[in-house]
From TrEMBL:
Keywords: Membrane, Transmembrane, Transmembrane helix
Superkingdom of origin: Eukaryota
Signal peptide annotation: none
Record-linked PANTHER family: LD33804P (PTHR45632)
InterPro entries: Gal_Oxase/kelch_b-propeller, Kelch-typ_b-propeller, Kelch_1
Keyword Metal-binding: no
Protein name: Kelch repeat protein
Keyword Transmembrane: yes
Transmembrane segments: 36-63
Length: 446
């Protein structure tokens, strides 16, 4: 039975006979704090405590002997994972940290959108979203500002045209939307810019290569877009840079395609990117390849593979170099840059060889300083085509698509997006790593 206290009062059970309890005057505590039971209860408590101690001792001995039966010859705690001696496995002590809890749902389901964090807001841009007047999900021009403190949502100035599966970047109070597909599913080359403070959109320019599902990031005011698919759904490796400073009152901004020496090392659509300290990271995605072992006309899935590879681009040198791959390959996931030189990815699409559109729960965090990916607390609800925002120590995951089109009569993927939002408290933790030798034959025979 619960005991209730008035605001500001603290329980002060100074002795076992409950002399203090009357003054709280709400629910009387029953059981061992009652006057009549004082002595008997002392005995019961003693017996219970002894029992707990004995059980704890037995469990403790058992656990110790279990650990000993794993012949771990050596374990080391270090702050730099690259110093692991040969033969040791590296384990981050931050593995599995985090806790996702529900936040206010979006008004309507939304997938294939971009989410941009700005002050305490998340801007939900375009995507495939439910249109109440049409009673179905459509490619959308809608822009919603989601207040992470109050859960309030406001419709902002819409995109000039409906877009989904575009690349986006944020720079100097502007949001850039590059390429993507329109409401006829045609691949586009348009570049739009949204002035956050003025709440207005401008047609900024045109890409040299129309591309959908590309990834984008901004460094030093310049906006980079790379990868994606062409109109035939062949993945691209080319890189373009759009310079907003080249726009004049009479001419749009110039987008330049960089030479082949600046191409991604791996062509990738459905990729994601962020910039940290002037370096752009292109993460995961899906690569088209000429699979001569299978008939891709019969099943297009055979000619695409999900990537875990990660590449970093230095705009000063114009070349990409590989970084540590993600733990799980994925395409079409949520991404956000976090303070302290980290990247978080959440959800994403995977396949089983014959079917794609399988939504993932997995969340990973990349630590730039240590070039390592660490598994974090998984999403409570699997999703792909989702996106993330980071506000005041919390990571928000917005919408996306659940697993879809895996059964013949299942609803089409573009009509089953989620409107749920989850928030993860971004727990800071010491960057410590345990180096250990994997358990030997003793463990597998146990
Ligand atoms: C909206 O569409 C769903 C199925 O697509 C249908 O079941 C429902 O009756 C429709 N609602 C209205 C108000 O037309
Ligand atoms: C957007 O707002 C800014 C600042 O008020 C203004 O300079 C600009 O002309 C506006 N652009 C459009 C397309 O309305
Ligand atoms: C795929 O490879 C086969 C065999 O090398 C070749 O004949 C075919 O033209 C290739 N297809 C494409 C689309 O590149
Ligand atoms: C590949 O699949 C298509 C469509 O199912 C079929 O028409 C074609 O004959 C197949 N090609 C081969 C080489 O089996
Ligand atoms: C992949 O999943 C689908 C849907 O569950 C199933 O029908 C198919 O047989 C699976 N393919 C393989 C290779 O397991």
């Amino acid at each position: 039975m619960a005991t209730y206290y008035k605001e500001g009062e603290q329980p002060q059970f100074s002795n076992m006979d409950g002399a203090q309890e009357a003054q709280y005057g709400t629910t009387r505590r029953s059981g061992c704090l009652g006057k009549a039971f004082g002595t008997a209860c002392a005995v019961i408590y003693f017996v219970l405590l002894t029992a707990v101690a004995v059980i704890a001792f037995i469990l403790g001995s058992y656990a110790t002997s279990k650990v000993r039966s794993f012949s771990v010859p050596d374990a080391i705690l270090m702050s730099d994972p690259s110093t692991a001696p040969a033969g040791y496995t590296v384990f981050s002590l931050g593995t599995g940290l985090g806790y996702w809890s529900p936040s206010t749902d979006m008004l309507h389901q939304r997938s294939d959108h971009g989410v941009i964090s700005y002050q305490k807001y998340a801007y939900l841009v375009g995507g495939m979203s439910f249109n109440p007047s049409a009673n179905k999900s459509e490619v959308s021009a809608s822009v919603v500002r989601y207040d992470t403190e109050t859960g309030q949502m406001y419709e902002m100035a819409p995109l000039p045209f409906a877009r989904y599966r575009f690349a986006y970047a944020q720079s100097k109070g502007n949001i850039y939307v590059l390429g993507g597909a329109d409401n006829t599913d045609a691949t586009t080359n348009t570049v739009f810019v949204y002035n956050i403070a003025a709440n207005n959109w401008t047609m900024m320019g045109k890409l040299n290569t129309p591309r959908t599902d590309a990834c984008g990031a901004a460094v030093n005011g310049k906006v980079y877009v790379f990868g994606g698919y062409d109109a035939n759904y062949v993945s691209l490796s080319s890189v373009e840079v759009c310079d907003p400073a080249t726009a004049t009152s009479s001419a749009p901004a110039v987008c330049t395609q960089l030479p082949a020496s600046s191409d991604l090392k791996v062509s990738r659509g459905d990729c994601r990117a962020v910039a940290i300290d002037g370096i752009i990271y292109a993460v995961g995605g899906v690569e088209w390849y000429n699979n001569t072992q299978q008939n891709c006309t019969a099943n297009w899935v055979f000619c695409y593979r999900f990537l875990n590879s990660v590449e970093a681009f230095n705009p000063a040198t114009g070349v990409w170099s590989f970084r540590a791959p993600m733990i799980s390959p994925r395409g079409d996931f949520g991404i956000e840059a976090l303070p302290g030189g980290r990247i978080i990815v959440a959800g994403g699409e995977k396949g089983n060889g014959t079917n794609n559109a399988m939504a993932m729960y997995d969340v990973e965090e990349y630590i730039v300083e240590h070039n390592i990916w660490v598994q974090k607390a998984p999403l409570p609800q699997a999703r792909f085509r989702d996106d993330l925002a980071y506000v005041a120590g919390r990571v928000y995951a917005f919408g996306g698509t659940p697993s879809c089109e895996l059964v013949p009569d299942g609803p089409p993927c573009n009509q089953v997006a989620l409107k749920t939002v989850f928030a993860m408290f971004d727990v800071q933790y010491p960057r410590l790593y345990a180096f250990f030798k994997a358990a030997t034959a003793t463990a597998s025979s146990a």
